Amino acid sequence: MKKLLFAGLLGGLLGVCLIPSLAMAQSAFDGTWKIDLHRVQMPKKPDVILLQNDMYQCKTCAPAINVKADGEDQSVTGHPYFDMIAIKVVDDHTVRETAKKAGKVVSTSTTTVAADGKTASFEFTDSSNSNAEPVTGNGTMTRVEKGPAGSHAISGSWRTTTVNNVSDNGLTMTYKVEGDSLHMSSPTGQSYSAKMDGTDAPYMGDPGTTSVSVKQLGKNMLQETDKRDGKVISVAKMTVAADGKSMTITVEDKLHGSSSSFVAMKN
């Protein structure tokens, strides 16, 4: 259920750009950075799911999803990372989701609700935003509200509490400032070269992000704005610590109306 339950979370978490300031000799942000999963503040806004009468709804997905939960591929529209999903009810506490694009599996995930119904665990493999090896990981979530009587245990509102064991390719990015331009690349195949004056530049290798702009807000502080077909989908602000070893990033997910923050460490 990772792609459906946590759309936007890992997208913000794994795909945010850690942007350098203008270079003199060498930018303090130049180099490779890795997100520290122990220093993450998850979105407070919960995800809302309903699985009842053989139908699955992800009410907080953007756009919302409403498909049969029969284990068969179902067409969905408006999602750049997948065009088919299959929701399989394994048992009364476990659900498995498979997403495809153009007939190819791009993500799989399994979510299992604890016996007391208060927490759930999930694990995922996701190549929907990767042009190389898939990103893998697992995590936990806590129930905020119960689902209606008679619905599957996955139904209700859930808040992600942890994301663990994410593969390095989903946490690592490399940056280089040359003149007035920033160059970004990642192990999953995303890249861009953007002037740091707030003008748009092409974002390569990501089906859900078509352009990016970078703007300096102050000393050791910058802002990146990601867009999809001209519409702002996320805004990230970054502040580099005085010692240059860590960077605090806050992300506003405009699609889901949520925010998160985390820390990246310079390798």
From TrEMBL:
Organism: Rhodanobacter panaciterrae
Keywords: Signal
Signal sequence range: 1-25
Protein name: Uncharacterized protein
Keyword Signal: yes
Native organism taxonomy: Bacteria, Pseudomonadati, Pseudomonadota, Gammaproteobacteria, Lysobacterales
